[in-house]
Amino acid sequence: MDTIESQLAVRNKCEQMQKSIKELYEWEEQMKSANTAKVQPADNSEKKALPPVRSDVKAMSKFSEDVASLEKQDEAESESAKKKMMADAEILKERGNKQCKLGNYQEAIELYTQAIDTYGDNAAYYSNRALCYMNLDLFDECLADCSTSIEKDPKYVKAYYRRMQAYERLGESEKAAAECRQILQLSQDESELNATKRDLARIEKRLSDANSQKGASSPGKEKPPKGAKMDPMLALVKQEADKYKELGNKHLARKDFEKAERSYSKAISLFGDEAIYYTNRSLCYWNLKDYDKCLADCNKAIQLDENYFRPYYRRMQVRELRGAYQSAVEDCRKFIELTKDDKQKQTAEKDLQRLERLVKSEQPAKQAFVWSEIKKNAKLIKFIQKPPHLRSKKPLTRIPIKDVIPCPIAIDSRVLPPPSQRKSIPDAAIDKMFNNNTGERLVEPKEEINLEHLFPAHSNKLRNLFSPPTTPTEQRKPITAPAAPAAAVVSPPNKTTPPVPVATAVTKEATNANSKAKEGKSASTAQPAQSTQNKIEKNKINQGNQDSNEKRPKKVATSADAAQPSPMRPTTIPGAPKSSAQFYTTWSGLDEDLRYQYLKSLSGKPMNTLLGASLSNEMLSELLHILHKRFIPDRAEVSHVLKEIVQNDSIGILSLMMNKTDRDAVAALLKYMEANNSVTKEDLDRIRHKLIS
């Protein structure tokens, strides 16, 4: 046991010795630094140029001139540096003013601080920063900056005015009135004087009202119990509670609402019959978004003092938030009735108008609680992150993936086949629907339109609808012989077509016309029979024409019709185009044969200039198709056209958009040129590189 104690004693002494040695080393360093600091001015003084002997007048005058020039140079340098610092500080101040106007007070404070660090002799910088502190309810910092600004410039009126505003907001009306009187002595501006006089009148009125209400029950003042004076012991307790209230006011000015709430709670625990304690604590609960406690404190404050106006306004805010607009209107009216401050009345009147509009509009009540703002009984749930050794060892449940059997789709009571049995839609058809032409050719089947079911052969509706009108007195002209050949040309011979009705109709019409000319009967007796007979004959003629038309073939293709060219397309090879637009316009109106001849005729022309920037994927596909299908079988020269195509600026992008048919055509053309030796190897490699690789 003695051995352990001796070891401990030795260790303690060693630690003490180490500490003493360390202190000695530190003392030695301090002494060395002090000696060097004392010696340095002597060295600098020795280095300075000494004045010459006074008897040497020339040297003395020169020395004085040099000293004067050096002093002027130093002053100029210091003045230029000061101007530069002031200019930089002014730039920072202007930026801070912009942020202050926008309401970004924290950014403005940072900029004003930088301006003060750059040049700290300007009182306006401190005054402007004090304004930002006051807007953020940081009154201690505001008062400090105002005092510093006044020290820099005792006649700077704005610093006095902002200090007056800070005192007034803190409730120190006497100090605020003193600041107003100081402004009246210093200021010479009429607008500033008038504004200060109005503020001083308002503050003095508040002070006179407070003095007149001394001894009576008023908010924030000592209120003895009813019917008796306050007990001395109770007065001491009330004085201690006021200290906690003042501490809470300071925390409230710094916007530290949690500390302020604790201070007011201590004051209430000491003396719970003061309405202002509950009112101030309700403000803390309002900012902490604990609206239940805020409402309870407002009710308690009103219960203690019905003439205190502040809890009515706070309760109005809570009731408006919860949708009880009618109750909020009553609290607002009571606040207007009790308050004596003009600005507060104006603000409350605006709130009253807004609440009355909400009541009249009969809007549904809002949710009883604003869930995004309530903190009561709320708990933040975080994601669980376990280390690997604490995680569950059970495997995850596997869910089998199965194909969902689709319900049968029925359209017009017709069930569609499943997707596997349906025909696939061609890509070209999809591209056409979405106006995305990829160059693929789509052969669309021609649909035959049959309208026979609309107008059957046995129906007289269409025949009567398009038949020319006839009158009983109309003289029918005999049908001449030349009409027959035309009918024979239009309708081919058919064994089943009976030509009898037409001849019969013509014979009967001629017979009727001759009989009417020979007979001299009166019109009154001949017209009814003649009209009936004409109708019957007309129906027979139309029936015969319709039967002959129905028995004709749907399409008649004769050699004469085939020989006739389409009126919309040219029949001869067009001339050489003079521009790119003319080339594309001519190309779009040609068929495949004429395109082949047209492209062949342009073998010596600058194709790259004609194609230009309008060369598209579709045009490139058409050119390759003509070269592959027409030039190669005819053993024609294709190298010139391909050389001109690959010189186009857009060929790199267009080659990426070519489909399989175009690539096969390019491969065939390259093979054809290589077999004929019609192009050099460099040109062949260049064409292959541009169109394929």
TrEMBL record:
The UniProt record lists the keyword Cytoplasm: yes
One Gene Ontology MF term: heat shock protein binding
Coiled-coil stretches noted in the UniProt entry, renumbered to this chain: none
Protein's UniProt keywords contain Endoplasmic reticulum: no
Biased composition (Polar residues): 522-534
One cellular component (GO) term of this entry: cytosol
Region Disordered, annotated ranges: 32-58, 208-229, 462-579
UniProt keyword list: Cytoplasm, Repeat, TPR repeat
Segments of skewed composition (Basic and acidic residues): 44-58, 220-229
InterPro entries, sorted: CiliaryAsmbly_MitoImport (IPR051982), RPAP3-like_C (IPR025986), TPR-like_helical_dom_sf (IPR011990), TPR_2 (IPR013105), TPR_rpt (IPR019734)
GO biological-process terms attached to the record: protein targeting to mitochondrion
Low complexity bias: start-end ranges: 481-494, 502-511
Subcellular location: Cytoplasm
Residue intervals of the RNA-polymerase II-associated protein 3-like C-terminal domain: 576-663
TPR repeat ranges, renumbered to this chain: 89-122, 241-274
Full protein name: RNA-polymerase II-associated protein 3-like C-terminal domain-containing protein
Native source species: Anopheles coluzzii
